[in-house]
Amino acid sequence: MTELSGQSSFDSHNPPERELLDDCVHCGFCLPTCPTYQLWGEEMDSPRGRIYLMDLAERGEIGLDGSFTQHIDACLGCMACVTACPSGVQYDRLLEATRPQIERNVERRTPDRLFRNAIFALFPYRRRLRAAAVLGLAYQKSGVPKLLERVLPPRLRAAQALLPPVRLRDAFASLPRRVRPKGPVRRRVAMLSGCVQDVFFHEVNAATQRVLAAEGCEVLTPRQQGCCGALGLHAGREEHAVDRAKRTIATFEKLPVDTIVVNVAGCGSSMKEYAHLLADDPEWADRAREFSAKVRDVSELLAELEPRAPRQRMEARVAYHDACHLGHAQGVREQPRAVLRTIPGLEVVDLPEAELCCGSAGIYNLVQPEPAAELGERKAGNVRAVAPDLLVTANPGCLLQIRRYLDDVPMMHPVQLLDRAINGTEG
């Protein structure tokens, strides 16, 4: 790690704020909830340790290269420490300020840089994802994955294992632009269909439209929408995140709706942060604030509405996994459980170590496959411990990550289960 003195190692564009760094009293309440500290017991891979590194860099006592980047890269950004902290330390703000500094000022090794660039050249683009879905289906049916499973490098092996089951019918399907309820309109909403969600989890979007309509919502789903910028924001690619945020705001702000509904935890978390992301842009700051104020996770909206549609009885034991960017980042914990409990006969159970991330964390399970695998195995063991008939979670990345290590328990998004209870669908 480069040793410096005096001048901050961060550049002048939105560095971590001194006031936020000083909030940490290094009490250690964050340690039991931090995934990497639980794995390795290394102080610099704990939230307070990373804040200490940020503090040193802000004072100019260390540089951003070498082990500084290594320890920040190892963080999942799950924000469990934010939930646990009794002092209200805003580690989320500190991390979101630090990662762009690394992306701007640290030269990554060529293989690392190329791999990360490839991720962002594919995932935010629906047309490219659809082309990848065609190739992925052929690849899955070829038998090649089993042959390459042991010889691929860890990152490519993780990418192969996380490839979702491809259904071309869903990958190329279009959602209705407007879905009207059968009865009186209780709420007018717009829905984010997303990028990865739209191509590989299209059935979740379709189920969301049906459930909202059944509960009296008129649902608008603009065709000309795309990536919300969540992956870029969480990975420190600020320019990407800002561009996608502005496009998303421009798409949705002209719609005459009360609420903007999101069914992906990571996307919802980022969209609620647009006001912070664009706070220094005089043209967009107010627009971002108004937009973020309308954003709700689908479970938040459904919990606000008194159930109107009858539910079929389901005798099942369902384990609910808290997606980190829903539970920790958005503070949405009870609403999904309350919505699931409107289904008669359903038993909703929590998982041991529920605060620990499953290892998905945006692109983390691709760029940090080894610790992600350890966390995935640990989460799968905790799911098996409660012996559920079904696992539900509100983030596609979590579904893919946990499915890799848990192939003996069916999984779905909570809204799919609600759709099955209301509409009798099997999606």
Automatic annotation (TrEMBL):
Cofactor note: Binds 2 [4Fe-4S] clusters.
One Pfam family per UniProt: Fer4_8
Keyword Protease: no
Catalysed reactions listed for this entry: glycolate + A = glyoxylate + AH2; (R)-lactate + A = pyruvate + AH2
Molecular function per GO: 4 iron, 4 sulfur cluster binding; glycolate dehydrogenase activity; metal ion binding
Domain 4Fe-4S ferredoxin-type: residue ranges: 14-45, 66-89
UniProt xrefs under InterPro entries: 4Fe4S_Fe-S-bd (IPR017896), 4Fe4S_Fe_S_CS (IPR017900), Cys_rich_dom (IPR004017), Glc_ox_4Fe-4S (IPR012257), Helical_ferredxn (IPR009051)
PROSITE patterns on file: 4FE4S_FER_1, 4FE4S_FER_2
First-level EC class: oxidoreductase
UniProt keywords, alphabetically: 4Fe-4S, Electron transport, Iron, Iron-sulfur, Metal-binding, Repeat, Transport
Gene3D superfamilies listed in its UniProt record: Alpha-helical ferredoxin
Requisite cofactors: [4Fe-4S] cluster
EC number: 1.1.99.14
PANTHER family membership: GLYCOLATE OXIDASE IRON-SULFUR SUBUNIT (PTHR32479:SF17)
Functional note: Component of a complex that catalyzes the oxidation of glycolate to glyoxylate.
Protein name, UniProt field: Glycolate oxidase iron-sulfur subunit
Organism, scientific name: Saccharomonospora cyanea NA-134
Organismal lineage: Bacteria, Bacillati, Actinomycetota, Actinomycetes, Pseudonocardiales
